[in-house]
Specification:
By secondary structure, this protein is α/β, with parallel strands linked by helices. The protein is 38% helix and 16% strand. It has helices at 7-24, 27-63, 116-132, 165-177, 193-206, 236-247, 249-253, 310-329, 352-356, and strands at 95-101, 138-149, 160-162, 181-186, 210-214, 258-264, 295-301, 334-340, 364-368. The protein has an 8-stranded parallel barrel, surrounded by 5 helices. Strand 8 (334-340), helix 9 and strand 9 (364-368) form a beta-alpha-beta unit. The radius of gyration is 43 Å and the shape is globular. 33% of the residues are buried.
């Protein structure tokens, strides 16, 4: 049976419970809740102010005819494609038909003088090859002697001299205007090989259509002969620095791959008992030529006919110096062949069909007088 409490007792009991509750609520908790409340009010006010400020700024920009967008995320830069020197390279997709000459010297070749008649002749000659082999479009050109051999030492005592710059520029302009290739042909004499090469390299660096040719026939790095009087004998060590110098141009100057013609007029000394004998060999060690894929090196057979049986000799020399040596050494790329309009007229200049019947078919054919 419950006991009843009097009113004073109930009031006393309720006060006790209230005092127990008040003793469990500490003043620190009150302050913490107050601080959190203030912080929430500040954050909310900041968000509201930022919203109204951005809206106001956008409205102002729109009224001025602009609208500020949030910056886009930064993307990594697109890599620049590596330069490819094979693009627009002439060989091996084309065949080159070129006229040879020392300017002003009729006997050297049909390009001795620039004229519309010479250009028409060159176009007609190129068309004959194009008709036989349309798979290799013909690119016309001029093989111009710019390091000219001399029979006397001259002021520099080099038995050679340079074509004057004004005449050279005329040929450059003519070739550029008529879409011709131009080969700067170096004969050296006694001139230091790389000094001579470096003198003409800027033309190859500047003009995509300018290439180089070298004629070891009148090259005397040992100063042991006179052009037009003595025969020369050179080594691969004399020629390899030229190959390397021309090979370095495309990637350095971002121009298509260059062509280097090496004229060969006499046999090489490989496999002979006297490879250094100028009377028997023009290049003592052809097997040691450097193969550099950055340049198109062409062995260009320059044998001269004009006597009975000359066609057979020219074909045989091309077979030995290009076909056989290419298979034996694998250190040059293509074959070239030279014909002479006047000198070989006595026995008949080989026809384009006869030239292209040789294997591998020459990709550079030049004509002298």
């Amino acid at each position: 049976m419950r006991s009843r409490l009097s009113l004073p007792q109930k009031i006393s009991q309720q006060k006790g419970l209230l005092n127990l509750h008040n003793r469990s609520w500490k003043p620190g908790k009150t302050l913490l809740l107050f601080a959190l409340s203030v912080l929430l009010v500040i954050v909310a006010a900041s968000v509201i102010m930022a919203y109204f400020f951005s809206s106001s700024q956008a409205t102002n920009n729109q009224s001025e005819g602009t609208f500020t967008m949030a910056p886009k995320p930064t993307l990594p830069p697109t890599p620049t494609p590596a330069f490819n020197p094979n693009l627009n390279a002439i060989l091996p997709t084309h065949r080159i038909v070129a006229f040879y000459a020392v300017p002003g010297a009729y006997a050297t070749g049909p390009a001795y003088q620039l004229s519309d008649a010479m250009l028409a002749h060159l176009k007609a000659q190129g068309a004959a090859y194009q008709q036989i082999d349309p798979a290799h479009p013909v690119q016309l050109g001029i093989d111009l002697v710019v390091s000219i051999p001399d029979g006397s030492p001259g002021p520099a005592h080099t038995y050679s001299h340079h074509l004057d710059p004004a005449t050279l520029q005329q040929y450059i302009d003519f070739c550029q205007r008529n879409h011709l290739l131009l080969f700067l042909d170096l004969n050296f004499g006694w001139a230091p090989v790389m000094s001579e090469v470096n003198f003409f390299l800027p033309y190859l660096e500047k003009y995509t259509f300018v290439h180089m040719a070298i004629d070891p026939e009148w090259m005397f790095p040992l100063h042991n002969g006179i052009p037009g009087v003595n025969l020369s004998n050179v080594h691969a060590a004399d020629l390899n620095p030229i190959i390397k110098a021309v090979a370095a141009i495309p990637m350095k100057y971002h121009v298509p791959r260059k062509i280097l013609i090496i004229h060969q007029y006499r046999p090489s000394g490989d496999g002979t008992a006297t490879p250094n004998d100028a009377g028997h060999a023009e290049i003592a060690d052809k097997r040691n030529l450097t193969l550099d894929p950055r340049v198109d090196t062409v062995i260009h057979v320059d044998s001269v006919g004009g006597y009975p049986g000359d066609h057979g000799d020219k074909v045989r020399q091309y077979h030995q110096w290009v076909h056989d040596d290419l298979q034996a050494y694998h250190n040059f790329d293509y074959g070239g062949f030279k014909l002479f309009y006047n000198i070989e007229a006595k026995t008949g200049v080989m026809t384009p069909a006869e030239v292209l019947a040789m294997q591998p078919a020459p990709l550079i054919v030049t004509y002298g007088n």
